[in-house]
Specification:
- With 125 residues, the protein is of the alpha+beta class.
- The longest helix is centred in the N-terminal third of the chain and has 17 residues.
- It has 4 helices and 6 strands, in the order H-E-E-E-E-H-E-E-H-H.
- Helix 1 runs parallel beside helix 3.
- A hairpin with a 3-residue loop joins strand 2 and strand 3.
- It has one domain: Aspartate Aminotransferase, domain 1.
Length: 125
């Protein structure tokens, strides 16, 4: 299962890199993804990072969507430390049910942070 989860993490990171004008750099020791190198919208953590017992991703999220996700799938979605107060949502990658759902949440995060000119460049596929 660990290898399968690593693949999900790598796939999610690759997807984030494919979004318009996204840069990646370490922030607080974790791969973090920024729009135009300025505002972050995604942080990813492998198993064991900061004593996490599961690989996870944290991303910007609308409060209503975050509440819905946590209510519908409380074993997958959670309020992450440090950035949860800003409305971000945490995702347990070891129990996430659908890669498509993960990319939808990631697309939402990007749309919240990116300017409309970049959002218009997002792939519709």
């Amino acid at each position: 299962m660990a290898r399968a989860t690593t693949k999900v993490l790598e796939k999610l990171q690759a997807y984030a890199r494919s979004l318009p004008e996204v840069t990646e750099r370490l922030s607080h020791g974790a791969p973090t993804f920024f729009v135009r190198g300025k505002k972050s919208f995604l942080m990813t953590f492998p198993y064991g990072h900061h004593d996490a017992h599961f690989p996870q991703a944290w991303c910007a999220c609308e409060p209503i969507l975050r509440e819905h996700l946590m209510k519908e799938q409380p074993t997958v979605f959670f309020v992450p430390p440090y950035v949860g107060y800003r409305g971000w949502v945490g995702i347990r990658l070891d129990v996430a049910s659908s890669y498509d759902e993960l990319t939808e949440v990631l697309d939402n995060a990007y749309r919240l942070i990116a300017p409309s000119s970049l959002v218009a460049k997002m792939s519709t596929s």
